[in-house]
Amino acid sequence: MWRRVSSLTGLLSHSKPSLLNQAPHRFNLLEAFTAQVLTRAKDGASPTVRTPFVAFVLGGPGSGKGTQCEKIVETYGFTHLSAGDLLRQAISSNYEDSAMIFNTIKEGKIVPSEVTVQLIQRAIESSSNYKFLIDGFPRSEENRVAFEKIIGAEPDVVLFFDVPEEEMVKRVLGRNQGRIDDNIDTVKKRLEVFAALNLPVIKHYSELGKVQKINAVGTTDEIFDRVRTVFAAYEAKFDDFVHIVVQKAII
Ligand SMILES: Nc1ncnc2c1ncn2[C@@H]1O[C@H](COP(=O)(O)OP(=O)(O)OP(=O)(O)O)[C@@H](O)[C@H]1O
Ligand SMILES: O=c1ccn([C@@H]2O[C@H](COP(=O)(O)O)[C@@H](O)[C@H]2O)c(=O)[nH]1
Ligand SMILES: [Mg+2]
């Protein structure tokens, strides 16, 4: 759960502010919150605070994360943030670290956490949604710790798309989208990095009871049926909100 919610630094349901950009402006936000409470109190309605829902979507290269995220977006209204897509966009928009990001992706290695977390943070800040799929991140324990520290949140659930290596290689080599890392040499490196650095993240969240492992072999519809089954247990939390109890001050 997002720890910031408990300190009321965000997420008023009506004005739809972004999630994180209020953190440095906590005082202003609390002022806004008070104003909101008063406005709503006049209406007699109970004021509410939205609680965000975050799903990390993990799996090896070509396991179908992006494909399933598209379906989740269509069905459940999540905002899809693919860390790889954000990094590729950063390269094409001449971001200050473009060359480093390009070379790191080409080598199948992991871009430094501060770069990726900043891109994710900006994407979250510019969204008015409360439901996020963070696809292909965190890639390492270092990524995970940086995200939890900077964003101040843990995921509600981690989807792990499980596919045998041979199938992942086949899918990546057949993708044909012109990606610089969709070649046999880089795929081998990405698989090694996945096993060495990404599986420990999955292990960490498994120990916290947050991982939902999905057999991701089959047609995309068959796999999405499995996602639906998993999400059935979480759906009530997707659009969760908390009622604020307003108490009169005793002076
Ligand atoms: N269930 C499936 N069966 C066969 N091919 C699939 C399946 N799901 C996705 N694909 C195809 O496999 C390729 C990789 O899928 P996708 O891009 O969704 O994977 P990914 O996990 O996001 O990969 P990456 O980590 O490299 O971004 C795509 O060409 C996609 O169309
Ligand atoms: O958090 C991340 C996510 C991605 N990368 C780099 O990008 C490529 C491609 O990522 P996809 O998720 O497969 O689109 C990945 O191999 C890494 O080199 C990253 O460094 N950190
Ligand atoms: Mg992808």
Automatic annotation (TrEMBL):
- EC identifiers of the protein: 2.7.4.3
Chemical reaction(s) catalysed: UMP + ATP = UDP + ADP
- Which UniProt keywords are given for this protein, alphabetically ordered? ATP-binding, Cytoplasm, Kinase, Nucleotide-binding, Nucleus, Pyrimidine biosynthesis, Transferase
Task: Give the enzyme's main class according to its UniProt record, as a single word.
Answer: transferase
- Matches recorded under InterPro entries: Adenylat/UMP-CMP_kin, Adenylat_kinase_CS, P-loop_NTPase, UMP_CMP_kinase
**A biological process term (GO) from this entry:** 'de novo' pyrimidine nucleobase biosynthetic process
HAMAP family on file:
Adenylate_kinase_Adk
Instruction: Give the protein family.
Output: Belongs to the adenylate kinase family.
Q: Which PANTHER family match?
A: NUCLEOTIDE KINASE
Q: What is this protein called?
A: adenylate kinase
- Identify the species of origin: Coptis chinensis
